[in-house]
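Residues and backbone
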Amino acid sequence: MPEVAAIILAAGRGNRIGTPKLKLVSGNEFFVNIIVKKLLSSGVKRIICVIHPDDYDWALENVSSVELVLNRETEKGMLFSVVLGIKKLADEEGVILFPVDHPRVEEETIKLILETFGRYPHKIIKPSYENRTGHPVIIPRDAAGKIKFASEVKGLSETLRGICNDIETVKVSDGGILKNINTAEDLN
């Protein structure tokens, strides 16, 4: 199995829901910790968590098993957080990009996309539920290297399409890949 690091994208301010999403709770557990546990259980050994500087002290006290990276320019969007995380990669063969607002992704889905990446280590791996792709996404090392130089004008999806046309879509029975939490109603 190729070595894969994870980048949890958690620098957003959560303006629509009223709090940074990494601090949201489900089942008495912070979203970020739910994702960390699932990644570790799936065999991911290195987890980078990109956060806003205002959340640094909180993260030191409440989040373990991650390397914290500060995004001081969150107004540049999620792609900028991805770039900051990728700059911290070592010799991993791929990276799983995991937005913190997707805590309902099942551990089995993570294992399945990691297993698929093991078979296709030069492809982007995307999970698909009911013919819609979602998160998390695995990006091979060469594509991740290209993201570092991507235009900040484009979003993440557009950037991925532009740097690698070789995508393997994995059908999953996990609606959590599509369920990002943006409002209080989404928590139900």
Q: What stands out?
A: The beta strands are 4-10, 25-26, 29-30, 46-51, 67-70, 94-99, 124-129, 132-133, 137-140, 167-171. The chain has a mean pLDDT of 91. The chain is about 30% helix and 25% strand. The CA atoms of residues 171 and 184 lie 29 Å apart.
